[in-house]
Amino acid sequence: MAKYVVTSAWPYVNHVPHLGTLIGSVLSADIYARYLRLRGRQVVFVSGSDEHGTPIELEARKKGVHPRELTDQVHEFDVKMWREYRISFDNYSRTESPVHKEFVMEFMKRLEENGYIFSQEEVLPYCERDKIFLPDRFVEGTCPYCGYEKARGDQCDECGRLLHPTELKNPRCALCGSKPVYKSTRHWFIDLRRVQDRLLKWLESHGELQDSVKKYSINWVAQGLKPRSVTRDLSWGVPAPFKGAEGKTIYVWFDALLGYVSATKELFIMRRGDPEEWKSWWWDSGTRTVYFIGKDNIPFHAIILPALFLASHDPYVLPWRISATEYLMYEGQQFSKSRRIGVWIDEALEIAPADYWRWALARMRPEARDTNFTWKEFYRIVNTELNDDIGNFVNRVLSLVRSRMSGVAPEPEDLGEHQGFVERVRRAAWAVAEDLEAIRIKRATEGILEIAREGNAHLNRTQPWKLLSQDREEGVRALSAALYAVKTLAHLLAPFTPDAADRLWSMLGLAGSVHEAVWDEWLDRPLPGGARIVRVEPLFQKLPDDFLERVDEIVEDARRRAREKRPPLLRD
């Protein structure tokens, strides 16, 4: 049986993540990891806080603190947030982890030993006012490819191109805004040209890569790879292990990419005290590694990371799937902390429970194109889909069993004409499984809604509350078929709304947790006859009728309350 390493892009910890970050990587990965576990697969689900690089150092400088003080607060806060959103990480690490730093340094030394690392003088922008070289986000300017005026020294957020600071037009220091001068400094580079042919062959022959990822990456590599600097003139980060590189650190993207491996290593050290067990995953050709990222991270995961693995000469498994989402917009605009555009994940929880957000974001997941989050759509999804379609069906069925069957699930010998309904539910359930297997998360939610809507239609058509008085056996059959659909919903909701699914499992009188009920053993089973429905409670609640009229007020109040709960360095 294949093993799976599921990863989500490591969030920068210079501020609280927003809803786009949540669905673009972390939540999507969690839904998939939960699904795999429900299919009985061996899974390691890892990610962590990306603490290094210029965004962190810039934010820390602005706040007048050491970067570690900032990242300690944000990392602890993010861990709390992921717990509240029920993100089921096996290990949520951090790039300041000693295991990670040691792993990165050893990996880079390995590349140097293999002849892929060389050093040379490089001319870089230097701020005479701040007395520092300006790598990456310390320098801003106009992108030479698309003309975007706020491109950074390492990448343009508009067109996605990787950049070198000297390529920017009209460069300016991100700290003080002054025009830099150019000075020479020595840096260490990885020679990507030496893996180009192998990398291109792998990309072209790979049958599991998302089309957008594959086309983008093949085009990039076919144009020719160039050596890329792996060091920076920064004090904050993983120390560069090369002779003569004292005072320099590893470029954050090489650092963070290797975190997927180091987090796995750290997991097995913590879990079993075995520092070598990670190799039975990352060096096993049967392991499938799956990466959940935003589209701006495609070049790093589809080109840079496999290039690193190839250059190591160790038997690392190359990416099996890379699920890259488009952008989630907020009411037609990009999320922006500085302009207060959007909703951040702690603010969202002041408005509605985590399960509501998990479902709504899965429904809005930007899989094929940028998707617009609107409060109108959020309101519709919660009130119509969660409450009316799913919650109402569950409540109708369980209330009937409680009131007309003394709370005891019936066990008819056969379902008669209602067997057709059960078969439709079964087919729809396994179609949901197929969609999740293929990481079609949004489409999987459609299948779940189909079952709930079919269930409500079945109740309206058969009217078991009448049948139980007129023809009790037929009423029992109709109700048993509906109970099968309710139990199926408990299974299918588990990856999406884990708390609600477990509450439904308990209401059905089933022991243990729905998250332990492996689908291949449980999904086709009817609810056992004699199971006791001991309580019936609403699975979901509607948002208030005046929610949309008051949404601006509600959001501002949520921001205020969330801000008060944040650690001190995150309250601006």
UniProtKB/TrEMBL annotation:
Principal cellular location given in the protein's record: cytoplasm
Positions of Zn(2+) binding: C143, C146, C156, C159
Keywords: Aminoacyl-tRNA synthetase, ATP-binding, Cytoplasm, Ligase, Metal-binding, Nucleotide-binding, Protein biosynthesis, Zinc
Methionyl/Leucyl tRNA synthetase domain boundaries: 4-398
Cofactor(s) required for function per UniProt: Zn(2+)
One matching Pfam family: Anticodon_3
Cofactor remark: Binds 1 zinc ion per subunit.
Compartments where located: Cytoplasm
Annotated function: Is required not only for elongation of protein synthesis but also for the initiation of all mRNA translation through initiator tRNA(fMet) aminoacylation.
Protein name in the entry: Methionine--tRNA ligase
Organism: Aeropyrum pernix
Lineage start: Archaea, Thermoproteota, Thermoprotei, Desulfurococcales, Desulfurococcaceae
